[in-house]
Every structure is written in structure tokens, then in C-alpha cells.
Amino acid sequence: MKHYFYLFTAIVLTTSCSNNQTNLEGAEADGLDTNYFDTAAYYNKIGQQSKWPNVFDNKCILLNVNGHYSKEEADRYNKMTFMGLFFDSTSSEYSFKEVLSREGLLFTVVTSMPGYVPIISLKPNERCLFITNNPYMSKEMSHLKSEFEEGFNLEGGKTAGFYRGETYMEIKASDKKLTDNGTEYSFEYRLDLNEKENGLKTIKSTQLSYIPAFDDCNVNMVFVGDLDGDGIQDWVIKNFRKYTESEECMVLFSTKASANGTPKPIAQMQVGQEWEGC
Fold first, then answer.
1. Quick check: helix, strand or coil at residue 33?
2. Is the omega angle on the peptide bond into residue 135 within 30 degrees of 0, that is, cis?
3. What angle do CA 45, 50, 53 make, to 5 degrees?
4. Domain boundaries, the chain
5. Residue 171 has pLDDT above 80, yes or no
6. Is pLDDT above 50 for 74?
7. Highest mean pLDDT among 50-59, 101-110, 181-190, 222-231
8. How far is CA 243 from CA 77, 162, 210, 213, in A?
9. Beta 107-109 vs 167-180: how paired, if at all?
10. Distance CA 132, CA 83 (A)
């Protein structure tokens, strides 16, 4: 049984600068200059900080199924075996299995499309969320369920979670907000996974995401479930491209890749050198 809990707390500090009215939540206590009225410049400055995750395993590849790839990329990928996460809308179940192609070669040229694209064989009512080649996830699995629905996200100040045995797995979102002349800005968004013994004491904490500044989106859950066969939930999250420099960027975490069973980021989604999206 899944259990979800939500918590929202906010401390609002109000300052007035020049003729502009600026509100900051939780910012003054952290040493931010609440008299800084040039919101755009300040927001840009915050946005130059390093995002997380930003370190990945060079043996791992995560590809967008709608990407457009160069001939060099296609030649390299066509020599590899890819696994994919598939969702069946009829059964509402996921499966993780080898990706097969309708065209012989997985990556091929399609008329009117730039570059090479993956042509994936699908069953009726089935779609593929992503494909990956990595040393941690090579076993086919079926009848998979995700702890969260695809697209589930948390605003700063809220929590949600599920139980893994006696341990409560809490995901906690936190951020700071700045409202300037009716426009709200969010910055220093963090998503943490806290493992709580008997649902109370935190015994382990893992940072899943850190985005210095964004304006209209949160981190979305794509899939939370075991993909590497160790019996522990792996994580697939998605940020929007303008916060990660990659179209519809997913990040894949594997617990088998870490020494202590915590989710470790192993790959960030690639869209191909021929991508022409906006």
C-alpha cells in the first residue's frame, strides 16, 4: 500500500525597494539581499550556479525516443543493444525489455525527418518512454508498477512518499520564492530522498535534484521502481530543457550503481546532434 503525505510551510518576509514591492520566502534568513530590486539580474545570477545532477557514468547512455541523431551516432548506436521502458495503457503496467526495431536497424533515416531516428516496434496501446544502454540494467522485467504516476511533481515546501518494508521513503521539495510586481520567481529548488526508520528518524538522505532558478515548472517523476534487478526502487526524473540544456531532459538513477543502495545518477538524456526542436 502506498502512503502519501503533504506538508507546506512558508515564511514570508516583505521588503520595499524603490517603487517596487518585493516579497521573499525564506530568503533573508539565508543571507540573501532583500533590498536587491533588480529582479532579472539577481535571478540570472542565481541561475549561473551548478545544477544537479551534473556528473554521470560515461558507460551509460540514455536516449530520447523522439530524438534526431547524426550518422555517426546512428552507426555507433546500431552496434549496441538497448533496453527500453514501455508503458501499456490497457494494463497500466510497465515493462523493461530489449528494444526491437520494425526496420532491422534501430536507427534509420525517415523521409522528411532530419537525421536518423529510432524506429521502435510497439504493441497496440504501448509506448516507449526512453531507451538506455548501461551495464546496470540488462535484465528484462514485466508487470512493473511505479510508486508515483508519470508526471507527478512536488512544489517547494511539500513532501510525498511510500514505504519500502519498514522504511518510509520520503521525497521532500524545498525552494525559495521571490514575487516582484506580481511575477513569482522560484530559485534554489531541491528534491531530496529521505529514508526514515519506522517512518520517523532519517537514517539516510540523497539529493535527487537541485535547480538554481526556474519560473514555471517543477521536477517531474517519470518512473520510480526497480529497473536494475536489485529489489530497490530506481528513479527516473524529468526537468524541462531550459533548466538542463537538453530537450525534455530525463535523468536516470540506479541503486545498483552505488555502493550503499542509494539512487546514483548514471545518465542524462540525449536528443541527438540533428535535433532541431525548440
1. coil
2. no
3. 145
4. 1-278
5. yes
6. yes
7. 222-231
8. 27, 28, 10, 8
9. unpaired
10. 5
Gap between the Cα atoms of 166 and 147, Å rounded: 16
Taking a C-beta distance cutoff of 8 angstroms, is the pair 153, 133 a contact? no
Distance (Å, whole) CA 120 – CA 122: 6
Place of cell 508515483: 148
Provide mean pLDDT across the span 135-153.
95
Q: Is the pLDDT of residue 12 over 50?
A: no
Q: Is the pLDDT of residue 213 over 90?
A: no
Q: Which residues contact 17 (CB under 8 A, 6 or more apart)?
A: 35, 36, 37
Residue the block writes with cell 541527438? 272
Q: Give dist(CA 116, CA 20) in Å, integer.
A: 51
| 48, amino acid identity | Q
Residues 212-240 as b/e (b if ≥16 CB within 10 A, e otherwise) read bbbeeebbbbbbbbbbbeeebbbbbbbbb
